[in-house]
Amino acid sequence: MPAPLPGPVPALLPRFEVVARRRPVEMVRPFPAGVGALGPYVAVEGEPGALLVLAGAGVRVTGSYDDSARLEVTTGRRTTRHRSRRHGRAAAPVERLCLALTGTHVTLLTREAGGWVARCRVDLADRRAPRVDTHDEGWLATLTADGGTLGGFGQLGLRDLRVVTAADGTAYRPDGLVHLTATSAGPGFFDTAHTSVWSLDPATLALTHTADLFFRRPDRSGAFGDHATHLVRNGGAWLVATSTWGDFDRRRRTRVTLARSDADLLHGRHVLDTAELPLPTGGLRSAAVWDPHLVRTDEGWLVGFVNARRYFDFHPALAGGPDLDRLGMLGADTSPRECEGTTLLRVAGAWHVLASDKHARSWPVHDLAMRATGRLDAPYPSNIPWPTLVPLDEHEGGGWLAVTFDGTRAGGPLAGYGTHGDVVLMRAG
Questions:
Q1: 353-392 burial, b if ≥16 CB within 10 A, otherwise e?
Q2: Which helix (H) or strand (E) segment is 412 a member of?
Q3: Res. 5: pLDDT tops 50
């Protein structure tokens, strides 16, 4: 456990102040030409009186709203009908309907008073006979819709924002924009979310959704919405490190995978093959690892990550090695209980390891041995926001831009936790 700092804790950078908030909610994103449902994150949107249908081989789901929200699910010869007594009735006139498949969950949402609210939800994983595997790519290819146009599910909120970087840790900005990966929140817990890619205009702070990424696991068939992702430009190709949250189950160890691709991952929709990224946890009690962040230095690779002693008791850690297949433990700060978003940042020629500590409501900074050295002087939003920083050029006003998030939920009480958050933008210097 790192020793506490004596006296006042020095700030790594000048004081940050909140300059803007964004909440880009979207239910349906049109598929690019020739691209369909690459992962089980799709939706159809229609008028209030519409009968919305999502159908795939052996499965048909319909959603409708009259006096309350209703779902009907047919698999094989079995049909079930579902309503929510607590959440099924809209609190204001219904303006639009959306039927969404996110992971294994089918949700009917109503747009009312200008916002989307989940009114009825069914988990298709609960249907054992016949079993429905929504991650199966063959089944995904059969998906059709009625009552509206089938498209990709967008997001109720954004979290886990990371700057897309070059391998040396600098922001990758081929067009002058800041590019980000994010977790696109679905109408429920972690398994309803997926990875998306965004551009941020540093002048206007406008966010634009440019891509969606899905992942094949090395040990399971199917396409998953794994997220908490870092996208790295390494020479002329991409490295994509992500966390296996796409089918969260406490009985299954969450871990980190790595994909390599020559495709244009800043745009479009992609499903990527992965291999496990072996992260060392020797000497630590470890039930899971997540939140990878990769940097290549003159000495080799550094990988920041989170180690969980158990769900949910976790802390930042750092690995390093000559290549990504030969990593050793460099250090860990085991003192906090809910501290994540491990991020490597180079300031004034020195590397620092940043994190986010929920209970202390602070942004701790460590050296490469994971000894506490300071903090970020910045407001601390709710939940566990990540310390995602990018330096700005002189023509952009100079200083630093922080792109983080908070715990503000959307979608109503049925959707619950996992629908966060607002994007919180801060500046320093």
A1: bbbbbbeeebbbbbbbebebbbbbbbbbbbbbbbbbbbbb
A2: helix 412-415
A3: no
- Check: CB of residue 59 under 8 Å from CB of residue 70: no
Q: Where are the domains of the chain?
A: 17-22+156-428, 26-154
Residue 92: closest CA among 109, 108, 113, 110: 113
Give the containing element (helix H, strand E) for 413. helix 412-415
Residues 6+ apart with CB under 8 A from 164: 171, 172, 179, 180, 181, 197, 231, 232, 233, 266
| 21, 43, 142, 195, 305 from 155: Cα distances, Å | 16, 11, 23, 10, 25
Q: What is the pLDDT of residues 353-363, one digit of tens each?
A: 999 999 999 99
How many Cα atoms within 13 Å fall on the side-chain side of residue 112? 19
Cis status of the peptide bond prior to 312, with omega within 30 of 0: yes
Q: Look up the CATH number of domain 17-22+156-428.
A: 2.115.10.20
Spatial separation of the C-alpha atoms in residues 341 and 159, rounded to whole Å? 11
Tell whether the torsion through CA atoms of 283, 346, 203 and 262 is positive or negative. Answer: negative
Residues 229, 180: Cα–Cα separation, whole Å: 10
Q: How many residues make up the chain in this entry?
A: 429
Give the Cα separation of 3 and 71 in Å (integer): 55
Q: Is 137 helix (H, G, I), strand (E, B) or coil?
A: helix
Q: What's the CA gap between 358 and 125, in Å, rounded? A: 32
At 264-315, the pLDDT tens digits run 999 999 999 999 999 999 999 999 999 999 999 999 999 999 999 999 999 9
Report DSSP state, residue 126.
G
151 φ/ψ angles, rounded to the nearest 5 degrees: -150, 180
Q: Please, which residues have CB within 8 angstroms of residue 369's CB and are 6 or more apart in sequence? A: 330, 331
**Which stretches of 201-252 are assigned E, i.e. beta strand?**
207-216, 223-224, 227-234, 237-243
Percent of the chain exceeding pLDDT 70 equals 98
Give the pTM: 0.96
Map tokens 């390599």 to a residue.
260
